[in-house]
């Protein structure tokens, strides 16, 4: 009798932990599998990056637009207005009213609209707060970046249905009216899948390791890919740079210039970016052809190497941008039309000998 009673009393005590474990088993193994999968995927991406060369840059049928030109703003608004399934936006600054209105209208039509913004924009910490509140009040899913993963979300990215737009410009009025910016509009499925995975991870504040040969992603691979691009130069390098501040990139450009390769940089005028005074003096001391533009304002981050390969993206040639921020850019094999356009724009913005 005593044994039976004790059995009845102790049985539930043993069953409780068993029940608890069985109820948590699925969640535990799902988390474990995700963690293992991420680690393996990260190793694979790192191995591919270790052998990266410009020869791995694949052809992309991307359309390249440039501002200042308000027709580019018209184009982006029209694309959002015609969206049917999704509009995902990840951007450092969002203040352009027409873009905000278009996002609100898309949400009202039933489109899945999601936005990731930087909360602490350098020198203007509250600049995104109005757009955040406006979008949130309309039911748009909007969030600030997860600062634990990177210093800043400095990305300039739009994913509209099956199309991506990677740009050097923020979604601000000046990007379309006064700044020199570049916009790469493409539909490559592999790039699109990867960009969407990155966006969704950033939206949820999760870490991710995704890549294609053409995408340039900080803090994961930007340094390696941009350095590899610049080191590949055999004839000339043309750069657009809002500012400049990475010693490793400087050393690469210096070595190229010393070896007889023409290196030309079009930068923002020091009146607009005071730190450029020191950067320009340093670059010139390394035999680099540095030019500046007062109008248009240089905000673009772009490169053309040997008239063969090009880069367009949010990454500045600075240590923070390459190693600490969330940034997204794209590498492309340059078409003759793009090379012609790039040299024409470069020569107009920053002609040799000054304007």
Notes on the structure:
There is one protein chain. With 355 residues, the chain is α/β, with parallel strands linked by helices. It has two domains: 63-214, Endonuclease, Chain A, CATH 3.30.870.10; 217-349, Endonuclease Chain A (Endonuclease, Chain A). It is built from eleven helices and 15 strands. Strands 1, 2, 3, 4, 5, 6, 7 and 12 form an eight-stranded mixed β-sheet that branches. Helix 2 (70-81) runs parallel beside helix 3 (97-108). The longest helix is centred in the N-terminal third of the chain and has 49 residues, at 2-50. The termini are far apart.
Brief description of this entry?
The chain has eleven helices and 15 strands. The chain has 355 residues and is α/β, with parallel strands linked by helices. It has two domains: 63-214, 2-Layer Sandwich (Endonuclease, Chain A), CATH 3.30.870.10; 217-349, Endonuclease Chain A (Endonuclease, Chain A).
Number of domains: 2
Structural class: alpha/beta
CATH architecture verdict of the largest domain: 2-Layer Sandwich
Task: Find the count of extended strands (DSSP E, 2+ residues).
Answer: 15
Helix content: 40-55%
Order of helices and strands: HEHEHEHEEEHEHEHEHEHEEEEHEH
**Number of H- or I-type helical stretches:** 11
- Largest sheet: number of strands, sense, barrel closure: 8 strands, mixed
Provide the CATH topology of the largest domain: Endonuclease, Chain A
Name the CATH homologous superfamily of the largest domain: Endonuclease Chain A
Poorly predicted regions are 1-11, 18-22
Mean pLDDT: 90
Q: How big a fraction of the residues is strand?
A: 15-25%
């Amino acid at each position: 009798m005593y044994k039976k009673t004790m059995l009845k009393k102790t049985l539930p005590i043993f069953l409780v932990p068993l029940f608890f474990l069985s109820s948590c088993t699925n969640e535990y193994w799902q988390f474990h599998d995700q963690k293992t999968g991420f680690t393996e995927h990260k190793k694979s991406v790192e191995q591919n990056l270790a052998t990266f060369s410009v020869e791995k840059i694949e052809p992309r049928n991307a359309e390249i637009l440039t501002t200042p030109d308000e027709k580019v703003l018209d184009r982006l608004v029209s694309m959002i207005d015609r969206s049917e399934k999704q509009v995902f936006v990840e951007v450092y600054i969002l203040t352009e009213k027409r873009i905000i209105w278009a996002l609100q209208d898309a949400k009202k039509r039933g489109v899945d609209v999601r936005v990731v913004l930087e909360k602490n924009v350098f020198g203007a910490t509250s600049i995104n707060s109005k757009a955040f509140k406006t979008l949130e009040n309309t039911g748009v899913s909007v969030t600030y970046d997860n600062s634990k993963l990177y210093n800043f979300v400095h990305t300039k990215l739009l994913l509209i249905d099956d199309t991506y737009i990677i740009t050097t410009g923020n979604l601000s009025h000046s990007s379309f009216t006064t700044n020199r910016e570049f916009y790469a509009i493409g539909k490559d499925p592999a790039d699109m899948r990867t960009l969407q995975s990155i966006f969704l991870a950033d939206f949820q504040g999760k870490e991710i390791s995704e890549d294609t040969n053409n995408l340039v992603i900080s803090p994961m691979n930007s340094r390696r890919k941009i350095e590899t691009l610049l080191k590949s130069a055999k004839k000339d390098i043309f750069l657009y740079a809002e500012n400049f501040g990475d010693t490793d990139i400087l050393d690469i450009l210096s070595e190229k210039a010393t070896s007889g390769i023409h290196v030309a940089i079009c930068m923002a005028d020091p009146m607009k970016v005071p730190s450029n005074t020191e950067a320009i003096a340093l670059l010139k001391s390394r035999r680099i052809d540095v030019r500046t533009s007062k109008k248009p304002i240089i905000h673009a981050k772009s490169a053309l190497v040997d008239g063969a390969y090009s880069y367009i993206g949010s990454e500045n040639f600075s240590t923070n941008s390459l190693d600490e921020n969330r940034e997204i850019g794209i590498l492309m094999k340059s078409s003759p039309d793009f090379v012609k356009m790039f040299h024409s724009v470069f020569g107009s913005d920053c002609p040799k000998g000054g304007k």
